Amino acid sequence: MGYRVAIAGATGNVGRQLLAVLAERDFPADEVIALASRASVGKEVSFGDDDTLRVHDLAEFDFADVDIGLFSPGGSVSKVHAPRAAAQGCVVIDNTSQFRMDEDVPLVVPEVNGETIAGYDARNIIANPNCSTIQMVVALKPLHDHARIKRIVVSTYQSTSGAGKQAMDELFEHTRAIYMNAREEPRSFAKTIAFNVVPQIGPFDTDGSTGEEAKMVRETQRILDPEILVSATCVRVPTFIGHAEAVNVEFHDPIDEEEARELLTAAPGVVVVDRPFDGGYATPVDCAGEDATFVSRIRRDPTVANGLCLWVVSDNLRKGAALNAVQIAEDLIANHLGSA
């Protein structure tokens, strides 16, 4: 007997990836239910190579007989329906930002702090971290365990898929318009994204930081260590899939680039591509469709004691969202739920 699994937000970028990852990993599900807004009811979404699922209305759905809910319908929707599903006995793994800073909701990256999944039963909800946070902490966890991180300065280069399908469509349409000598006004971004970079992801706070930057700070501290100082600058770039990060790390204890390479090579979920010649590093194009977090450009920072620089790349729809959620579900089944 397998599990009954519901996908909330099944028609979105992450929802479709959740369905793909479940099928690829042969997840032990007897039934998978696709849920979305009323406007999508009756549509079909792909599940695996041959199957399709008909979409049901999330607002009307009864979760009483569902074991696991993988949610990615947007924060305001999760705020309403994730607690409702949890109250009916469904364990919700939520990909939105709605519950990430709630102390009684585990914020989990399985390779980093998988042991915290045990706290799921406080509310029957587990939070999936921000996509940029996930790939960074996967890369930094083995280094932190070895030499204790003191400070992180990170600049991100985030693809349009992180803002949804409409944002990806806007990049395509605006790029075409430029070639046609036409002009399109931005809709998904504050400024034109085609042939441009936009140093704003999320609304601005009173201190001048954006929402995405605040997420990276708070989530990294919660997952890795509350004593770590984090400074983030998050930038949207004109790519479709894959987030990249330039990460500067200062450690309490000595660590050199060779030690870092050895630790990262042995770390779960990490692939080191670090060769000192043209093209000897990973890029977003290389990581699209891949499950790993790729680390390149590992080198010493000579401006501080115990400093390293890293280049970190990952598919934001897979490890940054869908894959991480499915890995949480696999751990939940293996270590906490038992057989269905």
Stretches where pLDDT is under 50 for at least 5 consecutive residues are none
**Which class best fits the helix and strand makeup?**
alpha/beta
Q: What share of the residues lie within helices?
A: 25-40%
* Gyration radius from CA atoms, angstroms: 20 Å
Provide the fold topology.
Blueprint: E1 3-8, H1 13-24, E2 29-36, E3 44-47, E4 51-57, E5 68-71, H2 75-87, E6 91-94, H3 110-113, E7 125-127, H4 131-147, E8 149-158, H5 165-179, H6 211-223, E9 229-236, E10 243-251, H7 257-266, E11 270-272, H8 284-287, E12 293-300, E13 307-314, H9 318-337
Parallel strand pairs: 1-2, 1-5, 2-4, 5-6, 6-7, 8-9, 11-12
Antiparallel strand pairs: 3-4, 8-10, 10-13, 12-13
Report on this model:
Helix content is 32%, strand content 24%. It has nine helices and 13 strands. The longest helix is centred in the last third of the chain and has 20 residues. The termini are close together.
Provide a concise account of the structure shown.
By secondary structure, the chain is an alpha/beta fold.
Based on the model shown, name its key terms.
single chain, 340 residues, alpha/beta, seven-stranded mixed beta sheet, six-stranded mixed beta sheet, 9 helices, 24% strand, globular
